[in-house]
Design brief:
The complex is a heterodimer of chains A (about 400) and B (about 120). By secondary structure, chain A is of the alpha+beta class. Chain A contains eleven helices and seven strands. In chain A, the strands form two sheets. Chain A has a five-stranded mixed β-sheet. The longest helix of chain A has about 90 residues. The termini of chain A are close together. The relative contact order of chain A is 0.07. Chain B is of the alpha/beta class. In chain B, helix 2 runs parallel beside helix 3. Chain B has five helices and five strands. Chain B is globular, with a radius of gyration of 13 Å. The chains are: A alpha+beta (about 400), B alpha/beta (about 120).
Chain lengths: ~400, ~120
């Protein structure tokens, strides 16, 4: 519309779309019809009045109280010749008409302001409700993370003692083996050490997962290293589920200044999400790609799963939105990922075709960008106006 | 080197003793910080490095470290931690020379000691 019509027409159209705007427009149309067919109606006075007054009210709606009053007054004055031609000159009628139009124009404007204010307030209420929900959700998640951290720390600590003893004993046993000893024993000891090392890696990861430190400083980290660490952790599980899992890591990526634990959390969620998505599809493939694009590093998680329904696309970053069965998805993962990535000044997006998998892209700027504060959604009318201004 | 091993877990203590002795070090053992402090308080007892667990009954490694530093001793202290949340910086601030996390390997200990022996390494 804005392409062919001037800006004010867009504004009128926007106002007409509101409920009160529609009523006023109907009055106008009715008045117009009555004017066109007036030979058929004998009681025209009221009809012309309705038209004039309707016009005044619309003027007020569009232009505001002062503009509406002026518009109502002028349009009514201009309609006086019509009135006089139809009914003859009458001082009370010809004076009261413009005054009433002026009042109606003013009233229309005032009413629009009131409606606007109520709408603004209800929008503000909605926004603060949403903010409250987000805060509550973050609190819940923080609590959950803290609890998980405690459990992880406890488990790590409990496991550490026996693991240390097993590992050191195996090493010691190996040093006590005579040089000529049979190979199998040395092999078994090596296996014990190997497995202790594996368990040690798991404990280290538990440690990393349990660390909840909001004041943690950003550090320069190797993004590929983070991906590799997680890939190692997920590989056995994916393999057991018959999922073909691969990584394509761009070599020579520059160091990324970030909270590695948080980035790990995002990637963990995306991988778990991909795992659930491919569960029911015939081809089970998950791939993680890292690459550089301009001044940003990208992590992509691509799966061959069921994909995301178009109607769900707009909602997947909403808190508590989940399509998983009760008890299987909290609907918090993606919003938290979103928040973490936003905290790094980056973005997270998804492309998906129903039945052909999903492709999540996390973009993290290399420059230490200050965390982007999520803005409130713009006013509908303001958005329309800004679209007009720029389009 | 003379090494004081402070560890409440008897198996770990003994394994460390066996290993370090085999490496040619002289090893003294203590079951907690209090025992270690007593040993250190004897004027004839000297050591080149203290390896101390952080979590021990009676007196932990941190308290032992505090006492050692307060008494003006500069002996390097290698803390051993089974806990999370203890970083190299934390340990450094507390006056420890470095920290290793459980489960550790003999290699971790010998690497740390080798670093001490190097010219310029703390405690020289």
């Amino acid at each position: 519309m804005s392409r062919w019509l001037p800006a004010w027409a867009d504004l009128v159209a926007a106002r007409l779309r509101t409920t009160s705007g529609k009523w006023i427009a109907m009055t106008l149309v009715f008045g117009l019809l009555a004017l066109l067919f007036h030979p058929l109606f004998l009681i025209m006075g009221g009809v012309i009045g309705a038209f004039t007054f309707g016009l005044a009210a619309l003027g007020g709606w569009v232009l505001g109280p002062a503009g509406g009053a002026l518009f109502g007054f002028l349009s009514s004055v201009l309609s006086i010749p019509l009135w006089v031609r139809e009914y003859g000159f009458s001082v009370p009628e010809n004076i009261s008409g413009p005054i009433i139009s002026l009042l109606i124009g003013y009233g229309g404007g005032a009413m629009h302001r009131i409606v606007q204010r109520v709408r603004d307030q209800s929008h503000a209420l909605q926004r603060s409700n949403a903010a409250l929900r987000t805060t509550r959700m973050e609190l819940l998640q923080a609590e959950r993370l803290a609890l998980f951290g405690e459990v992880a720390a406890g488990v790590a600590h409990e496991l550490n003692q026996p693991l240390t003893i097993i590992g050191l004993s195996a090493q010691m046993a190996r040093t006590h083996l005579p040089k000529s000893s049979e190979q199998p024993v040395a092999g078994y000891l090596a296996k014990i050490e190997e497995q202790v090392d594996r368990a040690r890696q798991i404990v280290l990861r538990l440690r990393a997962a349990g660390r909840v430190n909001p004041d943690e400083q950003r550090i320069d980290c190797d993004l590929n290293g983070v991906v590799r660490g997680l890939a190692e952790l997920f590989e056995p599980q994916f393999h057991a589920l018959g999922i073909a899992f691969g990584t394509r890591l761009s070599p020579d990526l520059p160091a990324l200044n970030c909270h590695p634990d948080q980035i790990q959390q995002v990637l963990t969620f995306l991988l778990l999400n991909a795992r659930d998505a491919v569960q029911e599809s015939e081809s089970k493939r998950i791939e993680v790609v890292t690459r550089r694009e301009g001044e940003a590093l990208l992590i992509e998680v691509i799966d061959s799963g069921t994909g995301i329904a178009p109607e769900h696309m707009v909602r997947i970053f909403d808190p508590f939105f989940t399509t998983k069965d009760i008890g299987h998805g909290s609907g918090l993962g993606l919003p938290i990922c979103h928040r973490i990535v936003a905290g790094h000044g980056g973005t997270i997006g998804v492309r998906s075709t129903r039945g052909a998998g999903a492709h999540f892209t996390v973009t993290l700027p290399l420059a230490g960008v200050t965390p982007a504060v999520p803005e409130d959604p713009p006013e509908p009318s303001a958005a329309a106006a800004s679209r007009t201004a720029t389009g | 080197m003379v090494v004081l091993v402070v560890e409440d877990e008897v198996d770990i203590r003994e394994l460390l003793e066996m290993y370090l002795s085999a490496e040619g070090h002289t090893v003294h053992l203590a079951g907690n910080g209090s025992e270690a402090w007593q040993w250190l308080s004897e004027p004839q007892n000297r050591c080149d490095v203290v390896i101390a667990d952080i979590m021990m009954p009676v007196m932990g490694g941190r308290e032992l470290l505090r006492r050692i530093r307060e008494s003006g001793r500069t002996v390097p202290v290698l803390l051993v931690s089974g806990q999370i949340n203890v970083s190299q910086e934390d340990a450094g601030q507390a006056g420890a020379w470095r920290i290793i996390h459980k489960p550790f390997q003999f290699r971790d200990v010998s690497e740390a000691l080798a670093e001490l022996k190097k010219p310029g390494g703390e405690g020289g």
